[in-house]
Amino acid sequence: MADMHSDAPKGEIEEVVYLGVPIARLGTHAAAAHIAARRPGLPFAYVVTPNAAHFTRLIRLRDRRFRDAVSHAWLRLLDGHVPHMLARRLFGLDLPLAPGSDVTAVLLGEHMKPDDAVTVIGGGNGVREALMARFGLTRVAQHEPPMGFIEQPAAVEACVDFVLAHPARYVFLVTGAPQSEYLALRILERGGAVGTGLCVGSALNFATGRTPRAPQWVRNAGLEWAYRLMRNPLGHARRVFVDSLPIFRIAIEARLKPAAFGMADPRKDRP
Asked: What residue stretch is flagged as signal peptide (predicted)?
């Protein structure tokens, strides 16, 4: 996967190929600082946070559109305790975890200034007001696309038009995966936009307290998926059992045939 962007802050970010995806070796705070260091006004570039469901879509569903979106991202951060655990135990990879929700929380709480321009696509009614009230932001613009917008060309272009009409330092694309990633790529393809896009799912609702998040000890134990499943079994069951569970088989296949996933064979490092 080629990284097309050269507008990153000075200093190369090391990447490690994991399940066919180059992942930046950045933890939560380092990732937030790296994003915040990107100068305002630079051409649009975006961040994705591959998790178990993302890897399933890339490898099992062979979603070329999604692969294009991931490959053109400026920064790819590892999200999800299960992929993180598998990377360490099956491949011996020292890949820091940088969940999109955590990176967003650090950006909002430690790096953003009140007058930083922020554009939000999606997020639901009230997220703009919640961001302004919780973090003291004064320049927040929001566009809420209709359900199923990503398959409606006019609705997609309306989102792109909004981003172009509201230049921002940070562009939060929170319409869910893979819609946010598809949209980020479309904004990049159109050209003319500025700022850093962040495809971070429910991160803004977590950060503003509109959606309760698992207690810290639950997150540290890698059980946030179980907490969310318990709170919303109907809405979260597919994500856990259909979209994410195949990561185990994918990782085992990659362990047996690492070259097929662009990875080094960990067995060759044994004495």
From this structure: none
Cα–Cα dist 29/7, whole Å: 20
Contact 56, 66 (CB under 8 A): no
Task: Output the pTM of the full model.
Answer: 0.91
Instruction: Yes or no: say if 32 and 111 are a contact pair by the CB < 8 Å rule.
Output: yes
**pLDDT for position 243:** 77
pLDDT digits (tens, 9 = 90+) for 37-52: 999 999 999 999 999 9
Cα gap 149→122, rounded to integer Å: 11
Please, which residues bridge with residue 46 across strands?
A: 197
Between CA 222 and CA 126 the distance in angstroms is 30
pLDDT at 102: 96
Closest among 104, 49, 71 to 189, alpha carbons compared: 71
> CB burial class (10 A; 0-12, 13-18, 19+) of residue 118?
buried
Q: On the CB side of 240, how many CA atoms lie within 13 Å of its CA?
A: 14
Q: How far is CA 22 from CA 25, 37, 67, 215, in A?
A: 9, 21, 12, 30
Pair 74, 40: CB distance under 8 Å: no
Spatial distance between the Cα atoms of 240 and 1, rounded to a whole number of angstroms: 27
If DSSP codes are grouped into helix, strand and coil, which group holds residue 142?
strand
